[in-house]
Amino acid sequence: MNLEELIYMRHEVLLAAVMILTLTAGSNRKMFSAFTLSITATGLFLVVAAMGFLTVKDGIAFGGMFLASPLPIIMKNILNVAILIILLKTFGWLSRQKDTRDARDFYVLIFLSLLGIYLMLSAGHFLVLYLGIELAALPVSAMVKIQKGKRDLPASTDGMIRTSLFSSLLILSGISITYGICGTLYFSELITINMNNTLQVLALFLMFGGILIKIFIVPYYLIIGGMGGRDPSGLTSLQAIVISVSSIFILLIILFSIFPSVSILWQKTIFFLTLGGITAGNIITLRQKKTSRFLAWSTLVQTAYILTGIIGISPLGMASIIYSSAAFIFSAMGLFVTVLLVTEATGRDEISDFRGLYHSNRSLALAITVALLSLAAIPPFAGFFGRFFVFAAAAEKGFYFFLLVISANTLLTLYYYIDLIRIIFSASPDRPLKKIKSDFAGSLALIICIAGILLAGFAGGLFDRLHDLSFGV
Predict the structure, then answer these.
(1) Can you tell me the distance from the alpha carbon of 111 to that of 142, in angstroms, rounded to the nearest whole number?
(2) Domain that holds residue 429
(3) Contact 262, 201 (CB under 8 A)
(4) Nearest Cα to 396, choosing from 292, 250, 267?
(5) Is position 462 within any domain?
(6) Is residue 234 part of a domain?
(7) Does the residue 200 lie in any domain?
(8) Alpha helices, H only, 34-186
(9) Is the dihedral of CA 57, 245, 173, 162 positive or negative?
């Protein structure tokens, strides 16, 4: 490996260095307390996030197994912002750990999972992709098991681990069939092969199914397990958003870069999956009374909205997915952070507990309202522009009936978000909420989310940049 290849891999190299430094510092309990370790780890990661915005030309490393190009770098930078929000939200909890090694373990696991996501996004070979998938998933499973051992999470989180393992098995099976049929796992070679025989299509759908599980089912388990006061940090719930968005990015890369020859097939599949999924998800979300289940199901609906951009199979579709994913991160994390603050204070998991939030905690109520309006795709917030672009990608290909049904669904989505806003602003003379306080880091995380929601909608240059870098089928 030469210096040029190291520059191509700057995200991975810098993050690996931060992991080593965090591991070393956390092992020295005499010099580092949990508080000083938290400051060190968060500060070092901030440097990694800032360095990610430096411009680097395209390149390859390890004989084409690692690809460096602007589009994956933008994806990495988007996820870096999400991880920074998580580090800030969990700063108070991690810095209060009695044993420095407990804080060290969580920081290392967070960074290790992100390193796996980095590898997935820059993979030019299926082995690197699968290594990244496992490296991203196993640390999250370890986080769940550690917290469950401390009796913070319910037994249902075992379902997340089993589901994650099953999805990995499906993906590995698809990769194995692809190698057996094509004789290569390099993306640059696979894209030249017409993947239209039965076994190749089977391989596609095995990988497709495995990634969809990571987009929808694994995050569902993480949110259900981490909300309602069970997870005092909110770590697993917030990590679910990162896993969902990173899986969307991987699906985008696989479909557009490896299987363009059967684009009509996966286009129709996504057509029916998103149509049915959004409709069913909205109906189920309407019936939820518990906060955790409301957030879990509404999050699945939001990710399904993002996937509708794939139907366009065009540069506009690809750009719209990446842009709407960034808007989703700010909006969903803004919602989750505020909900976590309330559930931590009340120790309850009922939507009715938010009644009268505006009258006792106006800043929190306004923050959660902005997040909800963005998720409901109300202008001028970021969520509106994200939804508009993915719908425009579908309209570009003439899917007008699809858009008609999806547009009707947006009214359902709008209804349950507006209903929650109504509850927040309603008076609650019987059970008034107490004043909820957040530490500085948690407040900063919320400020970043709200700023992103307000500013991303006006960042027209970002979408233009994404559109210039994107490609279609």
Answers:
(1) 13
(2) 259-473
(3) yes
(4) 267
(5) yes
(6) no
(7) no
(8) 34-51, 70-89, 91-95, 100-122, 126-149, 157-182
(9) positive
* Tokens describing residue 329: 């991160």
pLDDT tens per residue across all 473 residues of the chain: 566 677 778 889 999 999 999 999 988 878 889 899 999 999 999 999 998 888 767 788 888 888 888 889 999 999 999 999 999 999 988 888 888 888 899 999 999 999 999 999 999 999 999 999 989 988 888 787 776 665 555 555 667 778 888 999 999 999 999 999 999 999 989 988 888 888 888 999 999 999 999 999 888 888 887 765 556 567 888 889 999 999 999 999 899 888 888 888 899 999 999 999 999 999 999 999 999 899 999 999 999 999 999 988 889 999 999 999 999 999 999 999 999 888 887 777 788 888 888 888 889 999 999 999 999 999 889 999 999 999 999 898 888 888 899 989 999 999 999 999 999 998 765 666 778 888 889 899 999 999 999 988 776 677 888 888 888 77
Q: Is residue 293 part of a domain?
A: yes
Tokens of 219: 């995050």
Q: Residue 60: enclosing H or E segment and its boundaries?
A: strand 59-61
Count structural domains, the chain.
1
- pTM of the predicted structure, to 2 decimals: 0.93
Residue with tokens 């894209």: 191
Q: Of 454, 472, 301, 312, whose CA–CA distance to 385 is shortest?
A: 454
- With b for 16 or more beta-carbon neighbours within 10 A and e for fewer, the 387-412 pattern comes to bbbbbebbebbebeebbeebeebbeb
